[in-house]
Every structure is written in structure tokens, then in C-alpha cells.
Write a structure and sequence with these properties.
By secondary structure, this protein is mainly beta. It is built from 3 helices and 19 strands. The chain has a single domain (about 1-295), classed as Proaerolysin, Chain A, domain 3 (Beta Complex), CATH 2.170.15. Strands 1, 4, 5, 7, 11, 13, 14, 15, 16, 17, 18 and 19 form a 12-stranded antiparallel β-sheet that branches. It has a 3-stranded antiparallel β-sheet with strand order 2-9-10, with no helix packed on it. Strands 3-8 form a two-stranded parallel ribbon.
């Protein structure tokens, strides 16, 4: 086991209207789950209510824009690498001269599974099904994980895939018997991510039953006696008051298993009691996704 030191390459948000809602099994499990998780909008309301002072009464608030973002917590990333011999063939040169023999093509089906859990204590609603994608990269491998921020359940995504290895030309000396093994590298990576929800908007307070001028969430948080874990945030992509918002922070946990590379090992087995490795080569393979299944993990 070794630490897998990652750098955050990018984090994006995929937001779709309710037309593209979460799978039925995900929604059913979420509705039946009793937990301490709270919709983020409820926390906004409590924070704003605690910010009312001097005869003011909280009325309502408007969320005008949102942004989900995240990053890896590098110290938490652990990687396990496993090499699996998934097939092979034997090539025998019974002639009195050297030959180049063909190993033949090879197909192998396997599954890649990723599970993510939003452990932030809050869920993201606002009429959207929001998935936060965090892409990470190391010196040798890239991978990404998706968090469904509208649920507190552990979501498991399994992709059934197939790889195809083209024919390989193997040089076999006269009188030699070679074994060609197909070795598949599989990685299991687990760790934690920082998850952020940035909210931009304003609130309306009433005084003597009359609405007051809108107050930014950013400003109201400064007066709140119950901040509900929010902190103020400023973005540089827009100008004016739209730059100012509030941020909820949380943690997510993930585990992903996926295949990375296929090797060919050529072993001289002419003397079965004393096999000798002749060559190891990395070969280009074609990956094809057969099916994708998303479910709530048991």
C-alpha cells in the first residue's frame, strides 16, 4: 500500500433541470433514510433568521446563482495496485530455424466500480439534480469521481467494459517454447475530497410590515448569530454585488476501481522447471464500455 499523491486538475458542476432526475432507486432510498442531513436551503433560512435585528423580521431569500466545486485532500489518497494474469497462449517453434509466431488477438471483460458518499451534512437542492465532478491527476494516472450532491446516500456506479488486444508478433528461436501471458493492471484508489457549495443571492427583511431593500447573503452572514457553518466567499468571474456570496463546506469519501494498462509477458518454458522471462511489453488496447449501472450501495 502506498500513498497516491494527487493534484487537483479541475472541478466542475453538472446541473440539469428536474427532467434529468436521479435514478428512482436512488430517490427512494434517500426518501426512506433517516439522518442528520439537512437541505442547504434550510440552513440558509436559519442563518438569515438569526441575522434579523432592531425590529426586523426575515421575509424570504433569493438564490440567484450557485457553484459547486471541490478538490482532493492529498494526504488521504491511498492506492493499491494489483496485477492479474487474465489469459495467455503458448507458442512452440518445432522447426530447426528461428520464427516469428503470432499470438492471436484477445478479449477480456471486466468491471470498473466507483462509490462516492456525500458526508458534508447537507444536500444540494434548489430544483436541480447536481453532480459535482472532481478530476485528479498524478504522474502516471488520471481519474475522476462524481458526487451526487442532492443525496446523502452512497452511490455506486459500475461500468462493464471490454478490452481487445491485437495480434502480437513474438520472436521464438528454433526449438523453443514460449508462453505469452496477458497481465492486466487494476488500481483501487480511495480517499476524501473537500466539497464546496457557493450560493449567491439576497434576502428581504420586513420592518413595520414593509419590505426593506434587498440585503446580500454575504452581508447578512456578517450579522448572523447562527451562521450554520457558512463562510463568506468572493468570486472574480463577475463584477458588482454578484461577486459576493456564502459558502458551505463539507467532505466526501470515494473509492474507485479501474483497469489502467495491459502488459504481455513472454516466458521461455522450454524447460518447465526453470521458466525464464524473455520480455515484458506494454501493448495498445481498445477499451469499450458495454453497460453502466448506478445504484444505492447496500
Amino acid at each position: 500500500m502506498k500513498k497516491f499523491m494527487c493534484l487537483l486538475l479541475a472541478s466542475t458542476i453538472c446541473i440539469a433541470p428536474n427532467i434529468g432526475t436521479a435514478p428512482v432507486n436512488v430517490m427512494a432510498a434517500e426518501n426512506s433514510k433517516s439522518s442528520a442531513f439537512q437541505n442547504l436551503d434550510e440552513r440558509v433560512t436559519k442563518m438569515l433568521q438569526s441575522a434579523a435585528s432592531g425590529g426586523q423580521v426575515y421575509g424570504y431569500h433569493n438564490i440567484k446563482d450557485t457553484n459547486l466545486n471541490g478538490r482532493s485532500i492529498e494526504s488521504s489518497i491511498i492506492e493499491n495496485s494489483e496485477l492479474l494474469t487474465v489469459g495467455g497462449t503458448t507458442l512452440a517453434n518445432t522447426l530447426g530455424q528461428d520464427q516469428t509466431l503470432v499470438s492471436g488477438s484477445y478479449e477480456h471483460e471486466f468491471s470498473e466500480t466507483t462509490s462516492t458518499t456525500n458526508t458534508s451534512g447537507w444536500t444540494f437542492g434548489y430544483g436541480f439534480n447536481a453532480t459535482l465532478n472532481i478530476l485528479m491527476v498524478s504522474a502516471t494516472h488520471n481519474f475522476s469521481v462524481d458526487y451526487n450532491m442532492s443525496t446523502s446516500n452512497t452511490i455506486e456506479k459500475t461500468e462493464k467494459r471490454k478490452l481487445t488486444v491485437p495480434e502480437q508478433n513474438i520472436f521464438v528461436p528454433a526449438g523453443k517454447t514460449y508462453r505469452v501471458n496477458y497481465v492486466f493492471e487494476k488500481l483501487t484508489i480511495s480517499g476524501r475530497n473537500e466539497l464546496n457549495a457557493d450560493l449567491y443571492g439576497d434576502a428581504i427583511y420586513y420592518y413595520n410590515n414593509q419590505p426593506m431593500s434587498p440585503q446580500l447573503l454575504y452581508s447578512a452572514l456578517n450579522f448572523a448569530t447562527d451562521k450554520q457553518g457558512f463562510e463568506r466567499v468572493t468570486r472574480d468571474t463577475v463584477e458588482g454585488n454578484d461577486r459576493f456570496g456564502i459558502r458551505a463546506k463539507g467532505i466526501g469519501q470515494f473509492k474507485t476501481e479501474y483497469g489502467t494498462e495491459l502488459y504481455i509477458e513472454v516466458i521461455d518454458i522450454t524447460n518447465s522447471r526453470n521458466p525464464v522471462k524473455v520480455e515484458t511489453r506494454s501493448v495498445p488496447v481498445e477499451f469499450k464500455t458495454i453497460s453502466v449501472d448506478t445504484r444505492v450501495a447496500k
